[in-house]
């Protein structure tokens, strides 16, 4: 611990404004994939800081895509709003109200409003087409709805294939748990139908090209359908493999977006640290688990991928005590003794950033506990599983530390429990 503490003291720098992070922007260089993490889904400062970094990457480094850990159909409403496609929602709050899947607070929050409005204005004033996309796997039914609606509207020959898939899934009344049990234990599934739909749409995606990204929308919704089917079928039997299916899907969705925009496109990826920080530098590797950060590093040159982790020492967070329950403002206790966050706090009770360079990564190769807070959080039990053993210099390319953080501000305030 003494060695790690000395290395933090030597290399960490204090910051108080976004301009203090210019060395990070410079270090990113010409990377095409910049992954911005978070150690919780309910911390205000993580969202606002990522938003400011995103703006700088767009204006100073030419990034044109933002992808987030959210549903594709709901995020398409943000994409249409900031681009003025079709008949977008009238205002940003109407857009965010379309996020109905729990936990809605991840994207339907006040912190997102400023970034979305900035993106809309930037696209209009600069004649740019910055895009905003959700790359998660959960929107099985919503993605099927999008596919059916588009094919009906265009009277496409692929409509029959889509209806067969829809008819198969319809039996489960839009209930993921029912499908998971039936497919996982009873071998009654819609695997063939979803794969046939994906194959048909990928083969014919050129037919869906229009002024509103129809081909991309159809392709990713088909990917979601096939991968969500696999995810729910496997989840009742294997947590680690269902995790891998989800992260492979997110990596594939990222590549589909990049391919649509062209080889020169650059993408910013917002996800939890557990998805962006290279799994090979954690105990996830021992459990056979992979993640998006690892996959992108494996598939692309080192200079093209840059990963930034985020963390805090203490404060408050929006989370729920059980899956699906109302959220509440929860105290984040001081970080565990000897953890990464503890050592960062020990270095100074202020905000810090640390760039891991090839010259000194080795100084951070000791395994250390690194806190991760999910949408379900019970702080009194966090020492049982909220610290991920990590080699920080290999897991990330940089780390941003906010010493004291505050809870996110969801739009639906009446659901907050104090």
From TrEMBL:
**InterPro entries per record:** Emycin_Estase (IPR007815), Hydrolase/PRTase-associated (IPR052036), UCP036794_erythomycin (IPR014622)
Q: What CDD domains does the database record attribute to this sequence? A: Ere-like (cd14728)
Return the Gene3D superfamilies for the record.
Biosynthetic Protein domain, EreA-like (biosynthetic domain), EreA-like, domain 2
One record GO biological process: response to antibiotic
Pfam families, per this entry?
Erythro_esteras (PF05139)
Q: Which domain of life is it from?
A: Bacteria
Q: Which PANTHER family match?
A: ESTERASE, PUTATIVE (AFU_ORTHOLOGUE AFUA_1G05850)-RELATED
| Name the UniProt record assigns to this protein | Erythromycin esterase family protein
Q: Name the species this protein comes from.
A: Bacillus salipaludis
